[in-house]
Design a protein that fits this description.
2 copies of one chain form a homodimer. Chain A is α/β, with parallel strands linked by helices. Helices cover 35% and strands 24% of the residues of chain A. Chain A has 11 helices and 17 strands. Chain A has helices at 27-30, 52-70, 91-97, 113-126, 141-148, 202-221, 237-250, 262-266, 269-272, 281-297, 315-319, and strands at 2-5, 9-12, 17-26, 40-42, 80-84, 104-106, 132-139, 164-165, 168-175, 181-187, 230-233, 259-261, 278-279, 303-307, 309-311, 326-328, 330-335. In chain A, strands 1, 2, 3, 4, 5, 6, 7, 9, 10, 11, 12, 14 and 17 form a 13-stranded mixed beta sheet that branches. A two-stranded parallel sheet of chain A has the order 8-13. In chain A, helix 3 links the parallel strand 5 (80-84) and strand 6 (104-106). In chain A, helix 2 (52-70) crosses helix 3 (91-97) and helix 6 runs parallel beside helix 7. Chain A is globular. Chains A and B meet through strand 1, helix 3, strand 6, helix 4 and helix 11 of A and strand 1, helix 3, strand 6, helix 4 and helix 11 of B.
């Protein structure tokens, strides 16, 4: 059973376990600083398919196959899939997971989706409703550009505040069976809107939400930054990171020693021309499964906060002049 | 605690309660056969706003305010919102619920979203993770037409198999406190693809998923249609209903006596020119909260299955020639 803690958190007295993770990325991600840590690097951005959306679906399919293989499980062992992507109506997910015939909860949390999926997975397993479930999230550079920005062939310029959508998919099996890590608590984010309207500066849109959730986590759990080996945001990038530090400093918390941002780690901005960093739900999902899980297995990280952040916008809301609110979901992961 | 049952179901031994529901609809829905049963009928399709999307957001805001008012609760009493709509990146939801500052899980299940939201709400409350949560889903005729079909001004013709997206929003408070009804079990749907590519015939796309989930529910719970006062699908319409009956008959189940479809009930197709029936996540959400809950309170219905169905497609997937897979989530609701 879970237990409500403080204003917006949950603590699990018998935490559900993480037994395995898998990560599939594209070529550019494979050439980045973390490249060697991912399970699969796909060299063809189309993955042999006809459309970017089908390519992204295939990333999801491969990430499920891989995590099942690594954990020595069959699809019949999985009770639910909690999954999402960035595309309208979650079509990358729909066509990616279809053939597994596993009961499915579709989630949309923009780039925070992996945090949302792990949260729902943990709640569901903890409550006795499932033995094993998969949490998964994907993004693809080209399907996201088509969805949110300009046709690739247009060759638009990108400001330095812009992030680069990661081509990648990360999958995690959350289970009642003992694993290498456990999900010991959650702090679920609310939507935070600072009125930022610049969709090319999503770090600035999301940083207030990250600050809000991290601050609330410290309050609810009565902890300090020093209590964690790492405090891992999703894809704030270099602009959002600065804003996050400023906002948390105002509230009396300095997380600069513990902080890492998956978007900043993913690429070498100097040589890969990715500007503020990586983004997309595949960014935090693959850095979690490719890098963070390895560090936990090696006991280099014993207790971390994983806080992917999402920018809540659509082409329609942007064109209608709306702001870009943010959301961030915090998942507390500890060595088992 | 929940308990896994059969292949894809959950049964709650101490079921979470439904303490209140609220329904907001548009003018056309207000003029339909169920019109007098909804809490609010908005006469202006724009709700005084500048865009259809903002109007839909306002439906969500009003449905939350109404359900809080009817249950004598404040927003501080609500631990989580489980919410979704049909629009890309859930923008109607984002801007509708923003100001309540309640931790938020964004869901996309197309027109099955209310079933998904009630499922996650029940799992979360049942597991001790929350005392009170809101499940909510909305749709708006004009924002959906803009998202999925043609500009309204184009005046396109609609085949008789087409459904009419309901302008409406239904909200439900699921709680640990005793209410008038309880959620006693769930059968969560998997994606089912019969290869139907006609996005103007969503009943045909969704009926196989409804059949799959209902059949599995009977198997997992070892029940028959006679065990329920009503078996309520979301928005199959007249075409989908026929297919559903055929598919279940093939498997040895005749649900014709117990079945009702929210989409068929919502409009008088003869006088309202709505063809196959109503659709959209607001359809099943408002018929559940406006009509079904009243019947349960009156003890006219003592045990029902609520099975909203979703057609999983986007403008991109449709234009790329993909099929329209379906999904259906079954929620078993009983008098408390």
């Amino acid at each position: 059973m879970g237990r409500m803690l403080g204003k917006q958190s949950v603590v699990f007295d018998n935490p559900p376990y993480i037994i395995e993770g898998a990560s599939i990325v594209g070529q550019k991600e494979g050439e980045g600083p973390l490249g060697k840590l991912f399970d699969v690097v796909e060299q063809d951005p189309m993955l042999g398919r006809d459309t970017w959306e089908e390519a992204e679906s295939l990333l999801q399919k491969e990430a499920i196959q891989k995590v099942l293989f690594k954990s020595n499980m069959n699809k019949e062992d999985i009770r639910y899939i909690f999954a999402g992507d960035l595309l309208g109506q979650l079509i990358a997910t729909t066509f990616g997971i279809l053939e597994f015939e596993i009961p499915f909860f579709g989630l949309y949390g923009a780039c925070s989706t992996m945090g949302e999926a792990l949260s729902m997975a943990a709640i569901t397993v903890d409550g006795g409703n499932a033995d094993n479930v998969i949490a998964i999230a994907s993004s693809h550079f080209a399907s996201a550009e088509r969805q949110f920005r300009f046709p690739l062939a247009y060759g638009n310029q990108r400001p330095y505040s812009a992030t680069w959508t990661v081509t990648g998919c990360g999958s995690v099996i959350v289970s009642r069976q003992k694993g290498f890590a456990k999900i010991s608590g959650l702090t679920t984010g609310k939507i935070v809107d600072f009125g930022v309207k610049d969709a090319q500066n999503m770090g600035a849109c999301m940083a207030p939400a990250a600050s809000d959730t991290i601050y609330q986590h410290f309050q609810d759990f009565n902890t300090r930054p020093e209590d964690y080996d790492k405090i891992i945001t999703g894809d704030l990038g270099v602009v959002g990171k600065t804003i996050l530090f400023d906002l948390l400093n105002e509230k009396g918390y300095d997380i600069s020693k513990q902080h890492m941002d998956c978007g900043i780690e993913m690429f070498d901005a100097g040589t890969q021309d990715t500007h503020a960093g990586g983004s997309g739900c595949g960014c935090s999902a693959t850095v979690l499964t490719g890098y963070v899980f390895r560090q936990i297995r090696k006991k280099a990280f014993k207790k971390v906060l994983f806080i992917p952040t999402g920018a809540l916008m659509s082409p329609v809301s942007f064109n209608e002049g709306n702001s870009v609110p943010g959301i961030a979901h915090c998942v507390q992961i500890e060595i088992a």
